[in-house]
Structure formats: structure tokens, C-alpha cells
Amino acid sequence: MPTSAIAGDAATVVILRDGSGPEGAAGVEVLLLERPGRGSFAGAWAFPGGRVDPGDALPGEPPLPGEDDGGAPALAAPLSVCRAAARETLEETALVIAADDLVPLSCWVPPQRAEKRLRTWFFLAADPGGEISLNEAEHVAFVWLSPAAALERHAAGEMILLPPTWVTLHGLLGAETAALALAEAGARALTRFASYQLFGEEGRIEAVLWDGDAQYGDPEAVGEARHRLTLTALPWVYERTAPRD
Question: Which residue segments constitute the domains of the chain, with CATH numbers given?
Fold first, then answer.
């Protein structure tokens, strides 16, 4: 399959609230929405979000960054992407979140061989409260779950997750409160995940790799460094070794 350029940008919001488990269980919960059993990502559970539209940019604002620099750690999320994230959240859930209240988390660049390459910007936000009302054309159910519970359901084959959603949930394991998770994310640089697929026999995707993995960009390379999500069996396995000095 030939490589393709980025087809556009999308934004997604990881909405957090403090855990509401038995006896005031500590930790956070995230809002997940279920896609219909047809169309793109059929049956998958994901965070609210969607494509950045031309109308999300104000006159005179600079264009979105190119693929090579989009999502670099030193780069702040563009304002048009923040507006798109807030708009899509409102359209999909009826929850009102101000663009200024979004905390940039990560930027995901699809593999070169992907058919539909939408670069997606992930944000964290606190639950604003209010009743959730789904856009039934786009989602059929919602649930609040702790990151651990969502990953457990995926491991049991009870919940479909895509790699960016899985890795984001994994990164929230151990978060004590929504406020702390937001503060910690706000103190970090935005993380860029430019995905590279590792294929096995019969052309099946065995793992998704990111910068820092010994085989990133070169499946024949030898080395111990790991930054990957292995997909060959449930539960998926995420590895990220510390970089050497």
C-alpha cells in the first residue's frame, strides 16, 4: 500500500471525574462512548471527539502545522483544534466544556500505510457536570469507568478499544484524582505518538511502535529499547523502556 499524507486533523477529549466506586474508591473515571455496529470503528469505545472543521479557525490564525512538526513536544495545540474539541464534545454528549479549560495531552499521527490518516489531538478535561445526551447517529451508549476497569473489559474481550484509546487509559492508571491528573498533564510537554506498524505472518499487525523502540521504522533492527503496544493476544502489552543516557 503506498504511503499517504495527513488527510486532516481531529480532536478528542478525555473527560475525567473522581471515582464513584463503593466506599468512595479512590481514582478517576473516564467517559467512554460506544460507536454503532456499522461504519468507521464499528462497535469501538472511544472518547468524545471528531474532525477539525474550517470554521473552527478564526480569521488571521495560522494554518495547522505540517506533518513533520505537528505534535512535537515543544508545540502547543492550535487554538482551532481546541475549539473543535469543545464543539465536538458538545455535539456528541451535550456537555459544555470551554476550549480554554482543555489540557493538551498528546498528538497521534497514524501509520504511513493507514487508509485514512487523521492526525488526532488528545486533551484532558474535568467533567463539567450536566446530563449526557448522545447524538444517536454517532454513538449508541456511554459509560463512566476507571481506566483499570476499561482495560480489564478489553482484556476480557468485552470492550473494543483502539490503540490510542488503550494507551491513554493505561497512562491514567494510578491517577488519584481528576484535579491531580489535570495538573500533572498541564506540567508536561505534549507527547507525540507517530505510529509505526510491525507486521507478522499473513500481513497481520503484531504491534504498534513509537519513537524510542529499537525497531521503530526498521523491523529488521536489533536492540532492547522498547516503546510499543503488542496486539497479538489479549491482554495487549504496553512496553516503554527508559531511554539510556
Answer: 8-194 (3.90.79.10), 197-245 (no CATH)
